[in-house]
Every structure is written in C-alpha cells, then in structure tokens.
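Worked problem 6 (solution included).
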Amino acid sequence: MGFENILGNKENKKLLTNILETENISHSYMFIGKHSIGKLLFAKEFAKGILCSSNPKPCNTCISCIKFDNNNHPDFFVVEPEEGSIKNEQIRELNKKILEKPIQSLKKVYIINDAETMTTQAQNSLLKTLEEPPEHAVIILITSNEHKMLNTIKSRVVKIYFNELEQKDIELILKKEYGIENTNNDIIKYAGGSVEMALRLYNNNDLYIKINEIFSNLDKIDIIDLLNSKEEVFEKKEFIEDILDYINILFYNLSKKDIRYINCLREIINTKERLASNANYNMTMDNFLFTVWGEIND
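Solution. The predicted structure is:
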C-alpha cells in the first residue's frame, strides 16, 4: 500500500518513514488516537517496512513484502480482542512465541489492536516482555484510550499520537470503500474525524437527527419531555459510547456561541466515568438529562 496511500496524519508518515530509513527501530510503540482514523493501517504498513529485506522500506517487491501482502508472513502477528477483551492467555501465548527466532525476516512484529481492552492481568503479563524484550521483537500497541493502559506500560513504549481525519478524507473513504455518496454534511461534521463514527451516523441517521433536535434545543424543551425521550435516545446500551461522543461534539460546537454548554461537556465525562464504574444505567442517564437540562435552564 505505502504510507502515501493512507489518508491523513502526514507528520506521522514522515516520522515512520524516517524510522524505517534510519533503521532506528524501538522495541515497542503505542499508536494513540480515536477509533477508525487509520492507526491499524499505519501499524501494518510500518510492520511491513520493519520486516522488508530491501530499500526503500517497504519495497513491495521482496519475498517478505509479497508474503506480508498475501497475509502469510510467518513473522507478523495481530492480537485482537476475543469477546470484548484481550485476555491473559492471549498475552501469555504472545510472550512465549515472541521468544522464538524469526523465520523470514530479521525481526518479528506483533500488533496488539484495541490494546485498552487488555485485562489488568494481561497488561501485567505483557509488561514482563516490554521490560526485557528479545532483540528481534517489535510490539505495536494500538489504543483509542491510553488512560486504560497501565502507567508502567506507557513508560516503556514510544508514543505516537494520531489526529482525526479531515472531512474531505472521510468523504473520500466513504465513497471509495463503502460506496456512500452525497452524505448529509452533519454526518461528516459530527463524526469527530472517525470513519467508524461516520458509518454509524449514516446507518442510524434517524436516531442522530432526533438527538440533534433534542440536545440543540434544551432551552426550549420541558424537563418531562426530555426525560420521556430517554428510551428512544438511550435505548441501545451498546451504542452509548458513540451517542455520548456525538452529544459531546454537538455540545462543543454549541459552546462556541453559548458558554453554558461548557458544563454540559463536563457532565458527559462524569457520565462516562459512572458507566465505566458499573453504575445503574437508567439512573445514570436520568442524572445526565437532569444535569444538562439544569445547566441550560437554571
């Protein structure tokens, strides 16, 4: 593929290309940024370059690159969450296999995708390898929430932060990869630079139109009507993170004209923290609605 074919994050393209050209490769990296902005694509292209046996890296023509493109490179591995989390058994297997010498290349590369889903036990297991990595090993952790990662892990990796995609890039990806054209501008505007979020907005357009109507007019809606909208807006618990992220972007844009929405932004953070600590879902969402309505109407 080549970094030039990945949209966005030009500075990171230069950084990763320079690392490959100078062969100044660290044992561990952490790619940090929102979901679905290209971190995994960058990580795979970086891994391909690390494993490449020619110059410039990746050359796309050597045996290593050909095997990589055909998804059968023996020295490249991706660890993904299983049933919502990366478990200790998966990391223990990584720790065991990573000690073995490379087969095709001079290095072995492991990508841990959605690394924030690692259990605490799994993170502690990984820490042992990060503390004393084999000379031939490179580990790339990909995360959209570095705050869920142990500080001891974060202190042992090279952090690379990825920016949100620009609207024109999201529009191009939706058109080329998903055949979606003539999208509602609000879908792109409120996608927060994430292709995944743009797709969810597109596929649940009616829901997000409703959310927009409600939370853009908190000063015009009665608190009882707001509470009655809870079932319709927050019914799908599995999408609550996306819904709150969408409301967050909505409030942020509104706060540029009305400072009362600043406190509403803080309440989104508080609500996410309550949900993360397994607070009662219905009570948490009731509290959220009461609080944001109060901020605008008191």
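Discussion: The CA atoms of residues 30 and 141 lie 5 Å apart.
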